[in-house]
Write a structure and sequence with these properties.
With 359 residues, this protein is of the alpha/beta class. It folds into 2 domains: 3-61, DNA polymerase, domain 1, CATH 1.10.150.530; 67-357, TIM Barrel (Alpha-Beta Barrel). The chain is 34% helix and 17% strand. The protein has 12 helices and 14 strands. It has helices at residues 10-19, 25-36, 50-59, 139-152, 172-183, 203-211, 227-233, 242-256, 274-284, 307-310, 316-328, 354-357, and strands at residues 3-4, 60-61, 67-72, 79-84, 90-96, 110-112, 116-118, 133-136, 159-162, 195-199, 217-221, 260-265, 289-294, 333-335. A 10-stranded mixed β-sheet has the order 3-4-5-6-9-10-11-12-13-14, covered by helices on one side. Strand 4 (79-84) and strand 5 (90-96) form a beta hairpin. Helix 6 (203-211) packs parallel to helix 8 (242-256).
């Protein structure tokens, strides 16, 4: 089997070229071609000797994902890709343009990447949960989403959010290795401040990120600070309670001096009460954070049952009322703009169909 070059660090490339009886500096050249210049054809790497290029063609590969399907939103230009992996499994990745009224509309382009095929967490509002869990993505598969999407984008990708299919913290090593490669200023060169990793609530990994002084932004998929309510819609709360999470985030903030983003889908009558305002206000006084209020995006296309079938999103007016109450308590709070709703590409809607996952 040929070695996959995408996903290899400089050290791994040094070991690889050494095994091919090539000098160490060839690894840096190869690294630059792939990560800095995005050249994926060995024959086009013109400063490499012909015999080395021949060795690479025989022993290694740089293949971008085949695009099984591509859907483009008619309302906001969001693009959703369905990518096929080597084993026939499929994942979804979303390219999100900014709103036309955004101050950086001309420059910004955001990519939402997946980290697992499916997800094991069974959050009741998330379409990905209905797929079940198949496996973690490799570092190569995480980076390949970026490289393939970049080729399809008319604008440079400036921001990356790890908010696609799967729980990034359950694939911690591969995700962090991908981030290291994405942010290497001698390679791809994306600023860590433009990368956000979202977790459903693994307190242990939140502390690990703090101890490792990770420079990327951290977001918590929160949705309720009422332990019973959160446990009902996010079973992971049975493992890590709300207080466990707040303690971990407090540790993270004091260790890194970086604020945390709370992602908060507003459900009608479930997590939009005055008590929820009080709990969020109290949390905001423990450490620096901001709250992103998110409209609930329907997952009816997955034929939900149980609790999932009963969830109803707050109306736009209800979200605004909740926002005003938090603002009145000096909580930094924003209402997130929905993107890609008409192609099931919005927050919580990613889910490759069963027949798409397995040939």
């Amino acid at each position: 089997m040929k070695e996959k070059i995408i996903g290899k660090s400089l050290l791994e490339l040094q070991n690889f070229v050494k095994a091919l009886n090539e000098p160490r500096f060839r690894a840096a050249q190869l690294y630059s071609w792939v990560y800095e210049h995005a050249v994926f054809d060995f024959d086009a790497m013109t400063n490499l000797p012909v015999d080395f290029r021949k060795k690479l063609s025989e022993s290694a590969s740089i293949e971008l994902f085949p695009i099984t399907s591509r859907q483009i939103s008619k309302t906001d230009g969001t693009t959703k890709f369905l990518f096929e992996l080597a084993d026939g499994k499929k994942i979804e990745t979303v390219l999100i343009p900014p709103r036309s009224t955004a101050v950086d509309a001309e420059e910004r382009m955001t990519l939402c990447v997946s980290t697992q095929v499916g997800c094991p967490l069974d959050c009741k509002f998330c379409a990905t949960a209905t797929m079940g869990f198949f496996r973690n993505l490799t570092t190569e598969e995480i980076l390949n989403q970026f490289f393939t999407s970049r080729r399809q984008s008319e604008k440079r990708i400036t921001n990356i959010v790890f908010m696609g299919m799967g729980e990034p913290m359950l694939n911690y090593e591969n995700v962090m290795k991908a981030i290291d490669l994405l942010t290497d200023q001698k390679g791809i060169g994306i600023s860590p401040r433009r990368i956000t990793i979202s977790t459903a609530g693994y307190a242990n990994f939140i502390k690990k990120m703090a101890d490792e002084d990770r420079k990327v932004k951290l977001a918590l998929s929160l949705h309720s600070l009422n332990n019973a309510v959160r446990e009902g819609i996010m079973p992971i709360t049975k493992k890590y309670s709300v207080e466990d999470l707040l303690s971990a985030l407090e540790y993270y903030y004091h260790k890194t001096k970086k604020s945390v983003m709370f992602e908060y889908i507003v459900f009608d009558g479930l997590n939009d009460t005055d008590n929820d305002v009080r709990l969020l206000t109290k949390a905001a006084r423990r450490f620096e954070c901001r709250v992103n209020l998110i409209p609930f995006h329907s997952i009816e296309f997955t034929n939900p049952h149980g609790i999932s079938a009963t969830l109803r999103g707050a109306s736009p007016q209800g979200i605004e009322t909740f926002w005003k109450k938090l603002r009145a308590n000096n909580v930094p709070v924003f209402i997130r703009h929905s993107a890609g709703v008409d192609i099931d590409a919005a927050c919580g809607q990613l889910a490759a169909k069963e027949e798409e996952l397995i040939h």
